[in-house]
Amino acid sequence: MSYRLLRPLVFLADPERAHGWGLEALRRLERLESGRLHKASALAPLLASLRGGAADLPPEAPVELLGLRFPNRVGLAAGFDKNATCVDGLGALGFGFVEVGTVTPRPQPGQAKPRVFRLPSAEALINRMGFPNEGAARAAERLRHRQYRGIVGVNIGKNADTPLDRATDDYLACLDTVHAVADYVAVNISSPNTAGLRDLQEADRLAPMLDALLERRAELAKTNGREVPLLVKIAPDLTEPAIAAIVGLIQRSGLDGVIATNSTVSRQYVGGLEHANEAGGLSGAPLRHLSLHVVRQLRQRLGPAFPIIGVGGINSPQAALEMRVAGADLVQLYTALVYEGPRIVTELRRALAPPPTAPAIAAY
Questions:
Q1: β-strands 330-333, 281-284: how paired?
Q2: Cβ distance 84 to 137 under 8 Å?
Q3: N- or C-end of the chain: fewer Cβ atoms within 10 A?
Q4: What does the alpha-carbon distance between residue 285 and residue 345 come to, in Å, rounded to a whole number?
């Protein structure tokens, strides 16, 4: 049975409840992959069908980036597995890297429900989750026991009740907690669902925060004996001067990479649709044009070698290739899993694994 046949039934449920079902299915997949669930289980053929097509993937050369070795270019964006509860199951779907979180120093419930809304005709979601999570320490403990051998990033943020002038303390606390278990750390300053968070993208706030994080990372590298790349995740709604200012800070600070982009507050492509006026960040297909625009600007300003992870509206092989051509070294998805199902991972891997004789994709 394919996901497309299951999707109408899934969409009868509240989006957040359906997401919970998906996480539980992934935990079952983990047990299946590890042998803890019998291979003859009725779940086995269903999961194999959902993953579909992975057996005939062309050879994929690992991607060397950020001092890390990514098995393939397709990753899962933060927000799907907030608490790192099913990293092994996600790895079994074929992702080359998984980004968990956003985690905060202290557990928090997030905003009131309902807080996730589907816009099916646009293949989009609006969410105002507000970083609900069990805290950085719980996620770190789970990551210590993962079996997945791909790359795991941890996306960090501040607690909702932490004032902006103390935000750096929260990011430092998260970095302290996850440094030993993360392959990279992404600093989330761009979610529209925590009041004031996007103000941290302003140069006068961002500069001292990055300086503090990079200084702490150097201290942790000595303590833990490992270097952990530090990236920043930015919004798709930044003006060109704001992007230029962030690029200047990235270059001055020595930050390792950038993730572009988070969800958008724009409703440019969904006006008039049911739920379009709900507060929160819009993700999915309508985000693609904004994200591509930001990635192109980043690549042009940062040059050909600086690591960029592109995310936003990647729901097809063509969309993934467009993001690569715009300048992204790696791509991430989230909303596409809701609309296309796990098979999309295999489709994107196939699209981004050119034949050995094919020329490299132009960066921009």
A1: unpaired
A2: no
A3: N
A4: 16
- What is the 8-class DSSP label of residue 63? E
- Residue 163 neighbours by CB distance under 10 Å: 9
Active site residues: 191
Task: Give me the residue spans of the domains in the chain.
Answer: 3-351
Q: Distance between CA 241 and CA 245 in Å, rounded? A: 6
Burial grade of 44 (CB within 10 A; 0-12, 13-18, 19 or more): middle
> What SS3 state is found at 125?
strand
pLDDT confidence of residue 47: 55
For the chain, helix, strand, coil in percent to 5 are: 45, 15, 40
Query: Contact, 129 vs 187, CB < 8 A?
Result: no
Which residue matches tokens 């501040």? Answer: 158
pLDDT at position 1 = 56
**Residue 19 in 3-state DSSP?**
helix
**Residue 272 CB-density burial (10 A; 0-12 exposed, 13-18 middle, 19+ buried):** exposed
Q: What is the pLDDT of residue 26?
A: 86
Q: Which fold has domain 3-351?
A: TIM Barrel (3.20.20)
DSSP 111: S
CA dihedral 274, 276, 278, 280 (to 10 degrees): 140
Q: Per the confidence metrics, is the pTM higher than 0.90?
A: yes
